[in-house]
Amino acid sequence: MDIGCGANLLCTRALLEKFPRMGCLVACDKVPIMTEEILKDEFLAEYVCKEILQFHLIDIVDCLDYRNVVNKIVCRNVLQQITDKELAFGNMYDLLRPGGHAGILFCIVNPVDACQVLINASRNWSQYRINPMPFFAKANIEDVYYKFLLEDIGFRVVRSEKRDVQLQFLNDQSFLKFLAYSTILLKIPEDRMTQFKEESVSLFKRLIGYSGSGPLCYEASELLLLAIKP
């Protein structure tokens, strides 16, 4: 099961490419993601037609109807948008069959997310909020916090690794292209879009301490958790 697969299905596609003979892959999200574009994608459409790839509308913080039905869970870059991470982990535990595996990766510190939070809360742009989905839910940055949390839930944690990743945007335009995600949550009037872009770029540069030349380099911290349900 790919939890929080997203409209681009990046992780879903990678799993099918890596394990083409898997019996079933459930791609789930809390918003509908099955589109005509997916069916036009020859690679994905083949798995859909064979009923190997299935789509389900599931919110990981509200999925009490599903218990002991999944062999493996992959959850990539979803937890940073969930406030009650303990509840999400507990639901993953309940979803898994005994002996099931969970692979979880999420950002705990990221200036891009911090930038989106500040934009969302700013006096200029908060009035245009159209979607209640959080930009970024603060995470605990202690090295072993989530390892102990998973163990308290019942998991056996086989790997807990916090790592800093060096990332960059080549220029302002590449940052703005990435920031286009914000338009899902904010409906900025066309006559204010130029101002929105300028303020967003300026804010992000301040957050990363931009020197004023070259790519926009920044550091993000992410946490990898691999766990087994006994």
Description:
The chain has 230 residues and is of the alpha/beta class. Helix content is 33%, strand content 26%. It has eight helices and seven strands; from the N terminus they run βαβααββαβααβααβ. The chain has helices at 10-18, 36-40, 42-49, 85-95, 111-121, 145-153, 172-179, 193-208; strands spanning 2-3, 25-29, 53-57, 70-76, 96-109, 156-169, 216-228. α1 (10-18) links the parallel β1 and β2 (25-29). The protein is globular and about 50 Å long. The two termini are 18 Å apart.
Summarize the structure.
This protein is α/β, with parallel strands linked by helices and 230 residues long.
Helix and strand succession?
A: EHEHHEEHEHHEHHE
Beta-strand percentage range:
25-35%
Low-confidence stretches: none
Count of DSSP-assigned helices: 8
Helix content: 25-40%
Gyration radius over CA: 19 Å
β-strand number: 7
What structural category do the secondary elements indicate?
alpha/beta
Biggest beta-sheet profile: 7 strands, mixed
Outline: globular
Q: Going across the major beta sheet, what is the strand order? A: 3-2-1-4-5-7-6
Q: Please report the distance between the alpha carbons of the first and last residues.
A: 18 Å
Residue-averaged pLDDT: 90
Organism: Trichonephila inaurata madagascariensis
GO molecular function: S-adenosylmethionine-dependent methyltransferase activity
Domain Methyltransferase type: 2-102
InterPro entries: Methyltransf_11, SAM-dependent_MTases_sf
